[in-house]
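quick one, three chains, predict together pls
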Amino acid sequence: MSKAQEFEPKIVAYVCNWCTYLGADLAGTARLEYPPNVRIIRLPCTGRIDFNLIIKALEVGADGVLVSGCHPGDCHYTAGNYHARRRWILFRELLDTLGIDLRRIQFTWISAAEGRKWQQVVTEFTDQTRKLGPYKELYATGPFPDVPAPETASPGVKSFAAESELREVCGKLLAEGTVKVVIGYGARGPVVVTRAEDAERLVWNNRCFSNLTAYLKRKEIKSLGKAAVIVKPCDEKSLVELEKEAQFERKDAHVIGMACEGVDQPKCAHCTARTPRFADVTLGVEAGPEPQTSPSPNRFAALMAMPPAERMAFWTEEFNRCVKCYACRQVCPMCYCERCIVDKNRPIAIDPAPSTKGNFAWHIARAFHLAGRCVGCGECSRACPAGIDLALLNISLHIAAQKNFGYEAGIDPKAEPVIGSYTLHDTEAFIR
Amino acid sequence: MSEIISQSVLRGLAAEWIAGGKSVAGPARVKPDLVLYRTLRSGDDLLLEGFQRPSNSIKDFLFPKAEKLYGYKIHGNSIELIENDSPEPAQVIIAARPCDAAALPILDHVFNWDFHDEFYNRRRAATTVVTLACSAHDENCFCTSVGLDPGSERGSDAILFALGSGQYEVRCATEKGHALFDGKTEKSERTGKAIAGPEKRFDAKAVRAFVTTHFEDPFWNEHALTCIGCGTCAFSCPACHCFDIVDAGPAAGNARVKTWDSCQFSTFTAHASGHNPRPVQATRQRQRILHKFAIYPEKFGEILCTGCGNCARNCPVGLGVLSVATEINHG
Amino acid sequence: MDNVYKPDLMEVTRIRQETPDVKSVSLRFLDSERARNFSFRVGQFGIFSAFGYGESTFNICSSSNWKDHIEFCFRKVGRVTEALWKIEEKDVVGFRGPYGNGYPMEAWKGRDLIFLGGGIAMPPIRCAVWYALENRADYGEITVVYGARTVADLVFLDELDEWSKAERVRIIRCVDPGGETPDWKGEIGFVPHVFERAQVAAKDPVVLVIGPPIMIKNTLPILDKMGVKPASVYTSIENRMKCGIGKCGRCNVGPIYVCKEGPVLTMEQLQGLPADY
């Protein structure tokens, strides 16, 4: 017996209760034979299949994952499969960026009447997976070429002209009681100023990295009363998304927008937002017309130029340094859940240990929860004490949202969010 | 008379140790702006100059971020525990900073007062720490404020002092240190000297006096307003040692694992019932300073901080022990 | 290697459902030598585990005089307790311990004992009551006031009846107003008030009070009026723990590691500590 014949792939099939499960059942009652390699897990709807489950199946040793639901238009819950389709489109891009072998994940629509299609899909997917062999490359290390590191900040401090005006404006806002607190930048990092005389502590220079909108969610700050928040044009984008998600109302905060010359961060090289658009007051010299498009950073291009196995090796090495300090989550303006999925333990969706699997699971969850929501402030990469360039994952999803749905987070306040909406025409090229 | 060694011989020694089956860890450049202590693949990986200090600490090699305590298999209603008794491989940590090495005696206390944590002890026994005295300090350094200095030998088995032109004086402090360097060095008349430490930034006794008497104080809330509640400070601290014990499910092979934890996380003290004795970030920041300057000293007689400044260097929002302690000290 | 984190394996010998969400479980060591050598002090705790789910800390609520088994009692409230809820007799759970200081039962000899417990706080009182009853001659008058929100939330009710048959023992049961049933024969009211009404005449008693913070807070002035010194009032602190052996850094209240210098503290000790519990 040859080696190839000895290997029998394990395949996990997540199927919807209403169509595919019945289709599989029909295949059985019709005595249609298909390989016994598939383990069926029945869920109410493809719309309910958490992407974590797909990863989990591979993690625990599946060689292939089949995901199947009702055909478009047939969903028992009207639109679950449309939502699922939209998520899969983005999710596949993320997995591809991570170097996960997309041939091992098959999406398909199989109705309750299609016992024969179930038979065919399972047979073919099993054969294909058998040919691919065991999924040994998952989270495997190996050689990979250098990915350029993000350009680093220059060490010097360069104050911008609007600094004194900023202090004056904030001092006045506090003195007149328009706001009770100003969230701004100090010499060492963010500062929260509550007294007019302390407005002198505020700075505006090339070291003003933080996206201060992340503080708006904090109870301790909310309890102080109405806040003024200082935003760079790039940070301002998070307000657009937060407002869409009903996490922020313009009346809650006084937005002080700073026309920006760049703060020595990797993102600044590709900036398309130099002038605040929605601020209550804008300070500094407006930087003139904005570039319309931004090329994706060359470090992302370098990553995607590698074959998947090298990408996987790259991320394995990166994630192995992760200590799960969750700085990436804590600095993120869009990570506002009261209780993060990693802190929930009934059930545990993500291995809490900072192991290779646990770290992959965490970073996949973090990145995908930000799909179409991340405004590219790059704080996750900057905050990471292990130097993991997490923003690459967000960039991947940003590009995917643009490419597939023409959506760019933080730009159009009226545009429907990518996740949570769908069209009847979303691409199906990858679905059988 | 002193013993000296050249950088090339030192790298050669490191290569020899690696070839001999020892695990050798030391500073290495991971990215253009990131230096970490990591397991070295070759003597050339070792980075000896051109950076202030690694972003992590050498505790990674004695108290790793995740350690399997035991595995278990569930057979029906019986349980089989699986322990790993294989001996710890010998380990050398080279070019550790004095502020890293000094944290080991601190960790020794915690892992051995009464109950003995053999996971830590076995690694500790198998580890030789070769420290490199500092030749620079930056605005985040404050070893002198917690009773140490750039040439402290505390926790080191051997300490190197740069003599310039790629030469180091070697001073062995323990048998383990001698075992590494005896016969490998040359005699010389030159002796090394650490640089003068950073100016003393605060009085640790005054900090302790403040924290023990100001449990409920607006200071904590004001100070913690910008803290985002991540674990970066704790995880990059050479002396922080809080941990969690978690069951890593089937995906990780059914094991109970000790993982780093941080008092800055909101879940750290949260009860299953929902009650949390430390409900806001201010109480968590307070705990960190209390533990370092009062709780630990009261129990073990020294400060739970070596002044390395990693908390401040790594903090995404520019906080850290130094800024809190100076603020307390100078009002 | 001497692995301090490795649990003993214990077989579940009996499970009793005390209330809709509270169960008590009896365990025996699978290793007979460990069973022979095992001893503990009442008031100590153990770290119990459901394999695959994790570890959780509970008081050992059986008396230290019972040699063949230990008991613990839990409320179904989190991941581990939900897993423990599903265990059956003959299943195996993990146990580490005994940890903590326990009650100074020797020092209490010759004194009157007052036990005040609220809700799920009965188990850590129960072990001490049994111990005192089993060494009846060593202790003076014993008073137990035990209350819960409703009748259905009272645990170890049958044992309360048993205790009341002993000499010089007064048992007072109560439920919060509105928590009574038509056939409820006990008192109605909160533990501190019921205790005050009961006019317990004890001279220089030892008081063990365990329950929600509000109950403890309202009890202290009453004890003060009775002339009970804070050094004679004990409680058992419930802080979240992971290691139980003074390492993981989770349970400190000021300089005290609850897992080592606690969980049993006097009010005098507590008054000197920050309110970090």
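Chain C touches chain A through four residues (CB under 8 Å).
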